[in-house]
Write a structure and sequence with these properties.
Order of helices and strands: HHHHEHEHEHEHEHEHEEH
Strand order of the largest sheet: 3-2-4-1-5-6-7-8
Structural class: alpha/beta
Mean pLDDT: 92
Bound molecules: guanosine-5'-diphosphate
Radius of gyration: 22 Å
Shape: elongated
Helix content: 40-55%
Distance between the termini: 12 Å
Largest sheet: 8 strands, mixed
Number of strands: 8
Amino acid sequence: MFDTLSDRLAATFKSLRGKTRLSEADIDATAREIRVALLEADVNLAVVRDFVARVRERAKGAELTGALNPSQQIIKIVDEELVAILGGDTRTIRFAKNPPTVIMLAGLQGAGKTTLAGKLARWLKGQGHSPLLVAADLQRPNAVNQLQVVGQRAGVQVFAPEPGNGVGDPVDVARRAIDEANRRLFDVVVVDTAGRLGIDADLMQQAADIRDAVNPDEVLFVVDAMIGQDAVNTANAFAEGVGFDGVVLTKLDGDARGGAALSIARVTGKPIMFASNGEALTEFDVFHPDRMASRILG
Ligand code: GDP
């Protein structure tokens, strides 16, 4: 991931090496190269414009004092601005004062929600929590079963509708799951919801109904990073239809360019909380904007 972007930025910075001061023309040329590099990485145009304008402005105003030479100074500015567009500080789940903390997953079908539910449950367990996974995706015939398999792998309990009792009503399942969590002292509830292949009104309404029924502490929008710019459009639709508190990027392992990762926090104004980079339950981590920026800058 970010291979081309990293290479291009490295080449840009290299061309500044050895200069003792940067002229306006140097800064403009550098800004242009950064712009092309970001656009090639499929970063959202508005994000690119803003990013480049800030780098240019800061580079022109930079005091050439201290230990950094001009090239190091530009790298530092780009690093800080990358951290900023990636969301700034690391932010993960905020646990409710009165358990259970309710986390709801929303996103398109195939985004990786069910897989993510297992990863998140495993992570929560590692943090000393006792999570309950809830199968409120009743659209796909196999979704309940898939969540049960994932739950088993993660070693956590799954609340699923019993045949003949509540099947077909994900809102009811979600509501009963919260009661179950209260009764059996699970301190975190992770609700997996249905997705469709495309954005549609029914899907949004169902997700909104589940949200209203369980009053989640965190709604996580799960999005496949491989869809690039479409991730931003999908995010906007979910922001409007359901609302969310944070983003989970999945399939970062397949996203060669990095456009979704570099656009989504800034465009949505919501933090990227977690990243998933493979099918295995272990291929998952808290998202750290500063580490991601360092990775891009090599
Ligand atoms: P859902 O429809 O949103 O519940 O999506 P699923 O969890 O069923 O995932 C859809 C497909 O993507 C499955 O084949 C998963 O194994 C795969 N998948 C999920 N997360 C990742 C990931 O981070 N990387 C890769 N390469 N595949 C993933």
